[in-house]
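FIELD: query
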Amino acid sequence: TDASQLQVTFGSVWLQNVKDGRIRAMVAEIKEVEGTKVHLTNGATVEVDVIIMGTGYELHTPFLSRDIRSTIEVSRDFVHMYQRTFHPDLPNFACVGLFNQFGPYFPVMELQSRWVSMVWKGVTALPSREEQLQSIQHFKERSDTGSAVRKEGFFHQNLMTYAELCGVLPPLTERPDLLKPLLLGPLAPSVFRIRGHGAYPGAAEQFLEDADNFGLIPEKVPDNQLRILEMVAQVLSTPEMQQAVQQLKADAGASKAA
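FIELD: result
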């Protein structure tokens, strides 16, 4: 099975369970269900006990007062707050996980919770009231057109947003052995414990183990992946990302020459 073709949700132990054989990935759609047998479009048939339908959910916040719900303008998919977390008119109040997203929630919610803790402990500060309200209004305008779902509703985008707010983006150029796994490997929780507030010893080694379990990092990086990384570097426009991609290209060129 080529796991790179799967549209899967990664939990913190998913990779290890796949490696150990406790989870078996199937690349196919369901064609027919016959009792406990599920016939797949690739011709395979598997025996199952339960089929879990990942249908998602709509936001429902009965635990909040009417005044708070009105302030943050709870909709079916969104709360209108700064980075979906804080509102300048609600001091000492924060929300975690109240957003629409494609992909696993818990890694993102962990980073979002770390950010809330850092703000309340004074480790980092929120922008001004005006900046927060401008950001909320911008998101509101985009959500009214539906573009907020497409542009801000993906796991990796939310994950990197909160990692940047926490100051825990992984070091792309500090350790050569981490370069390829960081650019081509999984966004495992250990990635965001390597440096910054809340870092812990051994996180880099844990990530290398997670990347090894992922098992899809090529020894020689294909040209198409290099082109994609170059486009990402252009969009992000950060010196570290650009330097990292240039180093990866140089390593690929040296490998071809050899």
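FIELD: remark
Strands lie at 30-34, 37-40, 45-47.
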